[in-house]
From TrEMBL:
Role summary: Probably part of an ABC transporter complex. Probably responsible for the translocation of the substrate across the membrane.
Top-rank taxon, per record: Bacteria
Transmembrane segments: 56-77, 106-129, 141-159, 165-184, 205-222, 228-248, 260-279
Entry-linked Pfam families: BPD_transp_1 (PF00528)
Organism encoding this protein: Rhizobium daejeonense
UniProt protein name: ABC transporter permease subunit
Lipid bilayer topology: Multi-pass membrane protein
Length: 296
């Protein structure tokens, strides 16, 4: 019995010497950490640096080829020559004036073509009668190459500004029509049923359900139309142009000035990039309610 008592006492002492588990801390004492998704975590190199690395590498390769003589100046002027030509054109005022004229043509043509395309798409998408009267004609006309219409446009509108703007309007109308029409017809049917259940009128259904649902497709169509607007602008400014970027390119082609031609091409690219950035900004503003995949 004595040995049993000694063993029990030793066991109690050992239990008392063991570290006791800490009591649960209340909510105020817990250190909070912000959990970030893997896609939002830093990856070392800033994204803006990764996006600019490609163009910078291309310009550097172009410069090396020009300096070493691999790319002769008669074939393509080097970056330094192009920069000096751009500076000269800016100082004389030729380049800013040409940019303003070309941008005005593109925006006016886009406004006309976009208005026509969106209006026809809304009529065709919302009403079956409109679809029967409009859609077949639009599907037929969109397969006709716009460049093939230049002779007719010259006959109809002359050789002034009208055929250039008409060519841009024709090119930009069809992408907007197709995307807005598809956006209206692809609105989730369950949303339509919910609108009917809560008693929305036809006008309220169109304004609050159908058109917001078609907005993502409409913005995609706008981006396509902007790209086609610049392409149509290049062809349009070959029609007896007396001003604009195409006019500068035509004159440079006559005198084999590859540096001026490259300047005009860069201006086309920068203007297209600027308007594309504008559309991306509109997407972020008007589609902030719509979750999207930002890339892995």
């Amino acid at each position: 019995m004595a040995f049993a008592t000694i063993d029990l006492s030793r066991t109690e002492k050992l239990r008392q010497q063991e570290p006791q588990p800490a009591a649960k801390a209340d909510g105020a004492g817990v250190a909070l950490q912000r959990i970030e998704p893997v896609s939002a975590a830093g990856r070392g190199i800033p994204r803006w640096l990764r996006r600019t690395s490609g163009p910078v590498a291309l310009i550097l390769l172009w410069h090396i080829a020009s300096v070493t003589g691999v790319l002769p100046g008669e074939v393509l002027a080097g970056p330094s020559t192009v920069l000096s030509s751009a500076s000269r054109l800016i100082e004389t005022g030729e380049l800013p004036q040409a940019m303003w004229v070309s941008l005005s043509r593109a925006l006016i043509g886009l406004a006309i073509g976009g208005t026509v395309g969106v209006s026809l798409a809304v009529l065709s998408g919302l009403f079956r009668l409109g679809e029967d009267l409009i859609d077949a004609t639009m599907q037929m006309l969109r397969t006709v190459p716009n460049v093939a219409l230049i002779p007719l446009l010259i006959i109809w509108f002359g050789i002034g500004e009208a055929p250039k703007i008409a060519l841009i309007a024709l090119g930009t109308a069809f992408p907007l029509y197709l995307n807005v029409y598809a956006g209206i017809r692809n609105v989730d049917q369950s949303l339509i049923e919910v609108g009917r259940t809560i008693g929305l009128s036809r006008a309220q259904m169109i304004l609050n359900v159908v058109l917001p649902g078609a907005l993502p497709n409409a913005l995609v169509g706008l981006r396509y139309s902007l790209g086609i607007a610049w392409l149509a602008l290049v062809f349009g400014e070959q029609i007896n142009a007396t001003a604009g970027i195409g006019y500068l390119m035509a004159n440079a082609r006559e005198f084999f000035q590859t540096d001026v031609i490259v300047v005009c091409l860069v201006v086309y690219a920068l203007l297209g990039l600027a308007v594309d950035f504008t559309v991306r900004t509109l997407e972020k503003v008007f589609l902030s309610w719509r979750p999207a995949f930002n890339g892995a």
